[in-house]
Amino acid sequence: MTPQRELIFRSFFEMDKHVSVDELYEIVRSIDRSIGYSTVWRNLKLICRVGLAQEVSIGDGITRYDRLTRIPHGHLFCLGCKKVVEFNADQIVGVLAQTAIENDFTNKGFKVEVQGFCGECRAKGSVDSSETESVS
Amino acid sequence: MTPQRELIFRSFFEMDKHVSVDELYEIVRSIDRSIGYSTVWRNLKLICRVGLAQEVSIGDGITRYDRLTRIPHGHLFCLGCKKVVEFNADQIVGVLAQTAIENDFTNKGFKVEVQGFCGECRAKGSVDSSETESVS
DNA sequence: ATGGATGCAAAGCCTTTGCAAGCTT
DNA sequence: AAGCTTGCAAAGGCTTTGCATCCAT
Predict the structure, then answer these.
(1) How distant is the Cα of B45 from the closest Cα of chain A, in angstroms?
(2) Are B136 and A111 a contacting pair at CB < 8 A?
(3) pLDDT of chain A along its 136 residues, tens only?
(4) A1-68 is classed in which CATH architecture?
(5) Nearest-CA distance from A51 to chain B in Å?
(6) Which CATH superfamily is domain A71-136 in?
(7) Which stretches of chain B are DSSP H helices?
């Protein structure tokens, strides 16, 4: 356990949002100027490998890291301000577990994401009405 | 409507799996040797823009395109062979719609994905037991 | 003729990796 | 001392874009 690692871990687990490597890099950088980008990247990967976080991609090419709690949750993703709101997914987990069994899959994890626009963005009018509704 | 576009569209909608740009490129290439990579890419983007498909990222850095049907579905993603099995998500959609409303979000689309190992991969023993279970 | 579509090649960008140097234990 | 961890820099690999050319209307 090096001081860099400790700083990265502490910073990551104090976040209340999903950070990208860049974001976390900037954060730890503001505390320890000498820390390297790859160190942040590698430690984030490490955290995932040991099961404390999970990579999430929302399609903008940037990988973000979602700290895993023991509480199953899904994500409401605002297409306007990119804000992510988590919601309890207890109800859905049951359905998914059942589905996995029916298809002879083991369930090692899941992702539930709803894309849309939050109230603020709708109020600000930053809603691209050309957005089409989609079901996946 | 150019012949290239027609070929790309036709090929894409005939697929029964999620293709990446490369995959579709190879497919149309086997029919029309002169077609360009960017043309495939741009047309796939176009299909998404008009709401007939959706980009999906499973975290391997490759963007795949999921043809949208009017039937809401989720994906069972095998971590072993990368196979994707779709399942009906009717039950879940209701819960998600409700959740969106509760959080003052408009629902413009969703993604439901379960990661695990399919029966075949478990039989073949290609299951990395170090995989940790995760909830998102 | 004319604006959009295509191909090729080059940029972009984020993610990974190679390596020598520096810590931990 | 021995092995893992860091930093820096370079390499990768997929996604985008610039542009001149071509084609559909």
Answers:
(1) 12
(2) yes
(3) 899 999 999 999 999 889 999 999 999 999 999 999 999 999 999 999 999 999 998 878 899 999 998 889 999 988 888 788 999 999 999 999 999 999 999 988 888 999 899 999 888 765 654 444 556 6
(4) Orthogonal Bundle (1.10)
(5) 6
(6) Ferric-uptake regulator, C-terminal dimerisarion domain (3.30.1490.190)
(7) 3-14, 21-29, 37-49, 90-102, 119-124
